[in-house]
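Lecture notes, continued. The same structure-token format from the folding unit now serves as the input rather than the output. Read the line below as a description of shape only.
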């Protein structure tokens, strides 16, 4: 009985260790820009699992608050002077908007990009970010749990 119980415990520990070693979520190319007040963090999230996951939160010691956001661009139809103008100038172009999200999807065996003009993590900063600094972050996934990453603050090009 003792031997069977001991063997079961060892097997469970080995399985748990194997699962922990094969992390289903990997995060790469984590970066931000120099910022004052509010910073935006971008990254590439890889899901090696057969199950989809979701980024559901983030935290950083350099931020009072972190939110998940999505930026989007709405194209405005070109308007001629006969259909509408502003000061005899044709109105065309696009409008950028941003919304807070409860989660960012990460597909099974797929990749989600956090990039300018799309998904990102927004941080309310405790101090300004300068080029060359690093930013510690913890990303919270619905299934994979917490993953620690470091963002590099890249100079504006």
């Amino acid at each position: 009985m003792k031997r069977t119980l001991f063997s079961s415990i060892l097997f469970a520990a080995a399985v748990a260790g194997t699962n922990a070693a094969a992390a289903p979520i990997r995060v790469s190319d984590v970066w931000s820009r120099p910022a004052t007040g509010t910073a935006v963090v971008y990254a590439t999230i890889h899901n090696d699992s057969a199950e989809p996951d979701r980024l559901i939160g983030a935290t950083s010691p350099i931020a009072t608050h972190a939110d998940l956001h999505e930026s989007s661009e709405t194209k405005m139809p070109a308007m001629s002077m006969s259909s509408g103008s502003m000061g005899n100038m044709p109105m065309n172009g696009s409008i950028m908007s941003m919304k807070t999200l409860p989660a960012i999807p990460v597909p099974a065996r797929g990749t989600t990009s956090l990039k300018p003009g799309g998904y990102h993590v927004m941080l309310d900063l405790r101090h300004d970010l300068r080029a060359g600094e690093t930013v510690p972050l913890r990303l919270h996934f619905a299934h994979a749990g917490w993953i620690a990453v470091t963002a590099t603050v890249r100079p504006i090009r």
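Point for the exam: The domain at 24-72+98-153 is CATH 2.60.40.1890 (Immunoglobulin-like).
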